[in-house]
Structures
1.
Amino acid sequence: MHSLMCTYTKRLRFLLFIIALVIFTIGLNAQDKLNSIGFTSQLEGAFVGDNGLIYNTTDSGLNWSLIPAFTSNKLNNIAVHGNIMVAVGDSGTIARSTNSGRTWALIPTGASFNFKSVSINDSGTGFIVGNSLTLYKTTDHGQSWEGITGLLPTGNAVDLTSISMYGTNRGIIAGMNRKFFLTSDGGETWNLPTSMLYYALNYTSIKMTDSLTAYAASIEGKLVRTTDGGLTWIVVYIDNTGISYNNIINVRAGKYAVAGNGGTVRLSDGNIFVWQLQESSTTRNLNCMAYIDTITGFAGGDNGILLKTNDKGATWSEVEYLQLTGTGTNTSVPVTARLLANYPNPFNPTTNISYSVPFDANVTIKVYDIKGREISSPVNGFRKADSYTAVFNGSGLASGVYFYRITAIGKTETYINTNKMILVK
């Protein structure tokens, strides 16, 4: 009886250990969501995502560097204006970079709104939109922002999801419940379309391609188009599978791309009523897309997925050389502790493990096998508050699933998290 109880206890402990690791992994995956991407040139650009994540590239996306966190809020969208990048997010978060995303500074607003989208026109005037008819304005290329009320003609406090400005005067805001707002005077006044679509659509993304033409994507899988500055709209594509489309862009004149849930990528080239499904190599939701030229593009989405195309968007493959490494160029101390997904994963035989601690701490990262046995400790020592990357070498280990666990113990704070990785030989 005693031996049976011991066996049962060991099995129960092992089961609880695995459940805890799965829960930690799910929590980490939620942090890895990428929401928006922008490029200031063919070389430089940045991704933003949940929990204040920002990744920067200076070599056309061959390598990506983790920017130390300066907020724990979700970042939803990036606007590009020359070398200036402005990122907006939940709880009134605005961050601005003047060097193509290599360093960032928070801009205080005192707002509690969730900012969803930002766009800046050629003159440096820009707008932020968000939940409950939120509208903020800048006239100095995003250095300062002020809340604007009373400009949007509606009786309902609908959520605004996307904005696109073109030139110095034109702009369109898209939102929930069929809402569009139009400006032809640089945002001094905003008006409603002269006619509404029959469909009750909830828009997720809008892109102006010239002063009169724009495309919008919707949760309901319908794509719409205007050629008169937003006064009237037509449906150009209907997806009957129920796919939500999250980001629509203009690749070049006459060519458009849209990304959506389930790894969906569609292209329209020459015929606005034909949107061909492309091979994306993933079923994860895609939230953002951008091209650095007419041939090469990137798409980001849930669970840290990053795709790249080198053939104008015909095929997309997961980037295997993504390097998430602290750059040390941002002097801001991280505000949240994080253990990021290792990269590459799967790996053979080495992989990078990146982490951030917002307080001085004794830090250990221990690696365990599937049976919960400790096999390595790639990090063991005191760390100042900062972001770091450790290299784990799996030489001598068998192929399989392994788990790595961080424990950071400061004077008054403790951080513990776990993730899994796969060694394939």
2.
Amino acid sequence: MGFLKDAFFSISSEPAVARLWSRSMTNSVAVFTLHRLESNGGGSNTVGLDTLDQILTKLAQHRIVVDSLYRTITDINSHPDNIRPRVVFTVDDGYTCFADAADVFESHGFSATLFATTDFVSADDWMWWDKIEYILKNRTKDKVCIEHGENARLISFGADESLNNTARQFLEEYLKTVSSRERQSVIEQCAEQAGVVLPDSAPPEYRALNWSQLKGLHERGFEIAPHTVSHPILLNEDSQNSERQIVESYRVMQKHFTPTPVFAYPNGTEIDFGTREMNTVRDLGLAAAVSTSPGYISSAMLTTGSDSLFSLPRFYCPNNVQRAVAIATGLRKYIGMAA
């Protein structure tokens, strides 16, 4: 069944066929979100650089406009009657791998929007899910016990990779439901019980671009925008910290360059942010904010003052050329498809 689906997407991504679908994209924008871009690709939330290059090549063949988010919003609002099919690439967090991805975008004459987490960039902290991975890779003990609601939960690791993946998935999903303070406590418990000393700063494979590198990307025309201070699930935070995470991340960026006035909610599903966060972004004077709820952006959503401007949808970019092109050309509107 998977072979037939891949064959269908392969045929549908050919320019002559895809133009039939892309007519439906005249008044729509497909926004992709990516996190890690590596030479080998294939990992969780990872797209290979070669795959990205092939996706961009296909989009150029389809004559689809590829640009950054804020430029797309302002251009559509300035020329509402001249909307060609468009695709926007956004990259979250700020990992060092974006430096290589930027070269790929530039080789096609395209740009992108990078949402960076400011404590990560400043090397004051590193991403909590990377700490979980580090603990798993460097553990000397195979059992940890954490508080889970009113109960304690024993988590076992071992030689079985599926067991480790299940344990890791449980930890990551659980830690998305608690406040950043609780999350840090659980990670410290896990590290201690697993016999791991977590480094204060990120090991090389988990590092972010620094401020000098971000400034250089900004000068090359890439949009750099805020993604909170420390990547909490905002709806799990109290009002004061939720506001601080949004406002301070923008203010810190302003000390280094003029950031693009758009925002990305961490994790970004409908249960991760709400009206409170949308109002904070609006009151800060930012132009828009993006979620990770899948869907196309219509021109109506981009009307100045619209509430939908502060919860714009994005598709996760698949590590598959044909599936990415199917989303970009509008085929996703007609069939269900796992990204």
